[in-house]
Amino acid sequence: EGQNGKMAVDSSVDGRERETEIGSEAELDEDTFLKCKAMFRPVKKSLSELTPKDNLSTFELLEHYKKGLLEIGDHINTCLDDFKSEVEISEWRSNLWVFVSKFTSASPQKLHRTYKKAKKEKNHSILTAPVKKRFLETATTTAAFSRPPPPPPPP
Fold first, then answer.
1. What is the distance between the alpha carbons of residues 20 and 6, in angstroms, rounded to a whole number?
2. pTM of the model
3. Angle (CA) 47 101 106, round 5°
């Protein structure tokens, strides 16, 4: 269990689920903070998207937040590819989510959970989109053939 007694479950690329500790209020030492900062340079803009914007509706704010979090979480997974041992991967996953939490009021665990949920929703919508499209195409073409013919015009 982690420092706060909570465990997160993470699905790896190979589909196996592993328990992953995500530190709650863990502080990053200066060296780790600087390494995290360097790792996040490519997605610096996404980090700023976690800060609420005043001129957005609630729906726009949530979509904006989810988009930024998806980019950040995907980037974290890419960064973790550089590590070989499960211990290093777990440690750096925690460090990177703790670093991200510095840019928002959410805890590292909440950010990680929200990312996984958003990723699952995104993957589900990508997988079901072709099925929905085929269903709609079939439904509209079938409906056109199943309608009774219009009545003849009056004499």
1. 9
2. 0.65
3. 110
